[in-house]
Amino acid sequence: MEPPPVQYVKTEDGFDIAYTTTGEGVPFVFLPWPFSHRGLWWNTAFGRPVAEALASRFRLVQYDSRGQGMSTRGLPEDHAIEDYVLDLDAVVDRLTLDRFVLYGGPVFNHVAVRYAVQHPGRVASLVLDLMTVSRPGEPESPFESLARRHWDMFLHTFVASFSLHGAPFELSYWRDSIERDDWLKMTASARLAKTADLLPQVRVPTLILSVRRLSDDEPVSGYADHAQAAAALVPDSRLILFDGWGSIWYSDGPEPPEAVLAIEKFLTELVPETAPSPAVVSSPSRLSPREIEVLKLIAQGRSNQQIADELVLSVRTVERHITNLYAKIGAHGKADATAYALRNGLA
Hints:
It is globular, with a radius of gyration of 20 Å. The chain has two domains: 7-274, Alpha/Beta hydrolase fold, catalytic domain (Rossmann fold), CATH 3.40.50; 284-343, Winged helix-like DNA-binding domain superfamily/Winged helix DNA-binding domain (Arc Repressor Mutant, subunit A, Orthogonal Bundle). The chain is 41% helix and 14% strand. By secondary structure, it is an alpha/beta fold. The longest helix has 15 residues, at 315-329.
């Protein structure tokens, strides 16, 4: 896919917000990560797989919030988490989105919760990634303390931590995405935000993604505790804990990121109206060689275990191929996949 053009909208309090849209189907509003840059995202080895995987399934909407990337920099001293809701309001109103899937990652999951509570009729489903249940009086995190003392060392430490889980070390992207003062105000706004009282008010199907442990030899992380606490507070929620962090959003091969597959499965099973649109159906040329192999075996009536044995893969890997394959061809089961194979001379 080609990177989409960057467009702008102005918030009601005067900030210029850079946004992009790509793909077709159900709108999927992807709130920015703490380091965001619309002009550079598609050029990174971690950003492109995420964007392409989502844009092949949905109408993907992304933007830089105030203080980030290509949007207006320089957050005021009284900046608060509620200010970010104005950025989201401006983008979805400009695009006249009546109903959409809303994803919020670190920091911006607090924004997603607020918006979902305020606009339950517009949010069809909610995805919260690395959700924390913040409470008043929480101290500054070690990352915040390091960033305040030595910004460049913080960037190296933070990016290296992310890169350990698959993504390449692309320091220039992180450095260009946000400046220290804006990052500190952003993280402080999330730390001071009160979410424990808001989470029980969420009234839309919610998927909570988080990390169980950063590596196999590490103890269960504090993020898992936060995620479990959030899931207990949000009605109609589902919790998935992964091992690793950056790895679930990074893919260096034909497989989409693991997080995208989890989101797709959740939406297809529990929120049919937000499943990938049948209008976004790939031609056989868009399928990877492995996906074509799997499709042919499905059309022959093979079980997942039989496919795994023949291709010398694990059953879990076969299941991932099938999930990705179904999304590309608009299939809802093996009967649909077999029919597609027959129509396209693959059976």
